[in-house]
Specification:
The complex is a heterodimer of chains A (about 350) and B (about 290).
Chain A lengths: L1 H26 L1 E7 L6 H16 L4 E6 L7 H10 L4 E5 H4 L18 H21 L2 E3 L3 E10 L6 H5 L4 E3 L3 H9 L5 E3 L4 H7 L4 E4 L1 H6 L8 E3 L4 E10 H4 L4 H35 L3 E3 L3 H20 L5 H15 L5
Chain B lengths: L21 H8 L1 H12 L4 H21 L4 H18 L3 H22 L11 H9 L6 H17 L4 H4 L2 H14 L3 H15 L9 H14 L5 H14 L3 H13 L8 H16 L1 H4 L1
Helix pairs in contact in B: 1-2, 1-4, 3-4, 4-5, 4-7, 5-7, 6-9, 7-9, 9-10, 10-11, 10-12, 11-12, 12-13, 12-14, 13-14
Classes of the chains: A alpha/beta (about 350), B mainly alpha (about 290).
Chain lengths: ~350, ~290
């Protein structure tokens, strides 16, 4: 009865083989990531390189697929697609993600930091906490990449909040925190999508924006502007996030590789962006924009308004009180020259 | 937001667009011989011969310029030749930057000498630059187009420099004006430049991909489909940016199956077929 016993075993062997095949195919996880950044941007270049490195180091068990240039829609659409599982990640600014985890936008409140060194100190001591908080909401992040400080830029000379108030200010459509902050400054902004800003400046619908210099140059907004209020108003930054659901399909060792590689890529974008930001300020001046220094009184006035705005933002839950206190404690520790 | 350095994307596509401009350069340098040479270059089926041979003409034109440093036509031709060579054949980024800078300097000088109120165009405020553009007429197109191609080549070689990216709006406005005045000038190559330039910005941040598509379609139509490079740029610049794989593969397949030999287009068509194969090979990774 050897034959029959072999026969009875053969299907079992096949089943085992099939099970093995299925198991190995489940190891090959593809992570689909979308962004508005066009192909060839710093983000996309770094991400493609990082994706290749992950694929090599995991022997093809983890693969990244990228959708640049907004082909999968704006940040809102990308987040929705991540929720239903048709996408697994995105590169975006913190704005919409902050709806899931408010403290993500804590560095971006107006006039929070008094110097770049202070900002770096706070970030070095707080980024990890924010990433952990984000992870509790089902998103895996790998650190932040700064875009740079936003400056007020206008077709009219601007040297104080007072002078900005009378102008036609833009606010990104749907950006509640910025709208709220501008309101506290006594500014009634006009909401427009990023895609409509250049036309808005051309037609006179708006004449003043607050934006990072790199973005202003890249999108050619500077061609319709003449003046800069020489005061970094708020810090802007973005990040790569993956949905936890997809990330968990990867085994632990490969997760560690993804974290390491994507963390390094994000840090590289961050460093590059800082250099770009400094260069962009110089280019704006070379392009003929006039930088206006606010007087000490105008600066103090802006700080008072910003503090009031931030107080209101904390009270209304745009960021948590605990997060805000932590940030202030770190600023105090930095001022004292000590550890947090 | 995607803004940092976003427009760096796709500028590489301008490579090779300048090639056809070689004709004008050599034509007017030494007339009959030059005309024969340019025809030989453009009808060459071996890009490598052109790559190796062209530097001799860069030196020749430098020598001629030494004699006539304020001859605007010669300056424009020198700019075109330097720019074309840098864009199509120089792989070393540093050399490409040097040559494209030289081309830009020559083109600026040519335009300053050859057109009214055309000095320091890059330094003047943008609205003033636009007013100057509005004053251009059909007769100004050769000079303005020459500046545009040198400028685009310079931008491509400096795509990592925000100072260059800041001038993208000026190049686009200039090429837009040129293609409005004479849509079919230089066998419609201006349409190709516009197609690439309009593809750089995603729709979500204010780009107009459909405008890019219209320029590419016009470029293909003007050459009656014989300019294969037009289809390559259409695929690489437009179809990839809007993730239209069907269009991408169809255009490139047409390029590969086409007969590359065509009057004054053989060299670019031969290069286009090489590029089309490379793009098809990487399509699975991209889409």
């Amino acid at each position: 009865m050897i034959t029959s016993s072999w026969r009875s075993r053969r299907p079992r062997a096949l089943l085992m083989l099939l099970a093995l095949l299925c198991a190995s195919s489940s190891w090959a996880v593809t992570i689909k990531v979308a962004t508005v950044s066009p192909d060839g941007s710093t983000w996309m270049k770094m991400l493609r390189e990082a994706g290749d490195e992950v694929a090599t180091r995991t022997d093809g068990r983890v693969k990244f697929k990228f959708y640049p240039g907004g082909v999968q829609g704006d940040d809102k659409t990308v987040l929705r697609k991540m929720r239903v599982g048709s996408l697994h990640g995105g590169v975006m600014t913190v704005g919409l993600l902050a709806q899931a985890y408010p403290d993500l936008q804590i560095y971006g409140l107006p006039l929070v930091f008094s110097s770049g060194a202070e900002l770096d100190y706070v970030r070095a001591n707080m980024d990890a906490q924010l990433m952990a908080g984000l992870e509790e909401e089902g998103y895996i992040g790998f650190g932040f990449a700064e875009i740079g400080y936003a400056y007020v830029m206008s077709q009219q000379p601007v040297d104080s909040v007072e002078s900005v108030r009378a102008l036609k200010n833009w606010v990104p459509d749907g950006d509640l925190a910025s709208a709220k902050a501008l309101e506290a400054f006594g500014i009634s902004p006009i909401p427009l999508t990023i895609g409509d800003v250049l036309a808005g400046l051309q037609t006179g619908l708006i004449d003043t924006i607050a934006a990072p210099p790199v973005g202003t140059l890249t999108l050619q907004w500077h061609t319709r502007l003449g003046h800069v209020l020489d005061m970094p108003m708020l810090y802007t930054y973005g990040l790569l996030v993956l949905s936890e659901r997809q990330f968990k399909k990867i085994d632990a060792a490969d997760q560690a590789i993804v974290r390491e590689v994507m963390g390094a890529a994000t840090a590289a974008v961050n460093d590059r962006s800082r250099a770009d930001h400094e260069a962009a300020l110089e280019v704006l001046a070379r392009q003929g924009l006039t930088f206006h220094q606010p007087s000490p009184a105008a600066r103090a006035d802006a700080q008072v308004l910003a503090d009031k705005a931030n107080e209101a933002l904390v009270a209304e839950g745009f960021v948590t009180a605990a997060g805000w206190q932590r940030l202030q404690a770190l600023r105090a520790a930095y001022a004292a020259g000590g550890d947090s | 937001m995607s803004v940092p350095s976003s427009v760096r994307a796709g500028l590489g596509l301008l490579v090779g667009l300048l090639l056809s401009a070689c004709t004008t350069v050599i034509n007017s340098v030494t007339e009959d011989l030059a005309a024969d040479l340019s025809t030989a270059i453009l009808n060459s089926e071996d890009p490598e011969t052109v790559r190796q041979g062209a530097p001799a003409y860069l030196l020749l034109i430098d020598a001629l310029l030494g004699e006539e440093p304020r001859n605007e036509n010669l300056l424009l031709q020198a700019a075109t030749l330097n720019g074309a060579y840098a864009g199509a054949f120089v792989d070393d980024p540093q050399r490409a930057r040097v040559l494209s800078r030289k081309a830009m300097y020559q083109a600026e000088k040519a335009v300053c000498l050859g057109l009214k109120r055309a000095c320091n165009l890059r330094q003047r405020p943008f609205p003033e630059f636009e007013r100057w553009l509005a004053g251009l007429r059909e007769k100004d197109v050769p000079m303005a187009y020459g500046l545009g191609t040198a400028w685009a080549g310079w931008l491509q070689a400096h795509a990592d420099d925000l100072g260059a990216i800041a001038e993208l709006g000026r190049v686009t406005a200039l090429m837009d004006r040129v293609t409005t005045l004479l849509p079919e000038y230089d066998n419609g190559q201006g349409q190709l430049y516009m197609g690439v330039l309009e593809s750089l910005k995603p729709a979500l941040v204010g780009g107009q991909p459909e405008k890019a598509r219209a320029h590419f379609e016009r470029a293909v139509a003007i050459s009656d489909g014989r300019n294969l490079m037009a289809k390559v740029f259409f695929a690489e610049s437009y179809a990839r940016s809007v993730f239209d794989r069907d269009l991408h593969d169809r255009l490139l397949q047409e390029v590969i199956e086409a007969e590359p030999v065509a009057p004054d287009l053989t060299l670019t068509n031969t290069l286009a077929q090489v590029q089309a194969r490379a793009l098809l090979e990487t399509a699975d990774d991209y889409f």
